[in-house]
User: Fold DUF5062 domain-containing protein from Marinomonas gallaica.
Amino acid sequence: MKKLKNEAQLIKKAMQVGETYAQNRGYAAFSAQTSANKKVESLYRLLVQDKLVVALPPDKEDLPSMKHKLAIWIDKMLPEDHPLKATG
Assistant:
């Protein structure tokens, strides 16, 4: 798994956009007590369910891989001229 340029910032952006997406799909907002790891897993599973992200093989489902999938998803969603856009 090759890290993307600005991967940490892409994950943060994916979390913001993903939470809004989940709310628009009718899910309740995450509480202040929900851990970041739980949010990552929940958003990953929602995006897989909606076929916006290709699911990881069950034996490869771990937190770093889920975060990487979220980063790839948001990178594809960003316009080409966005400052976080991975260029190499």
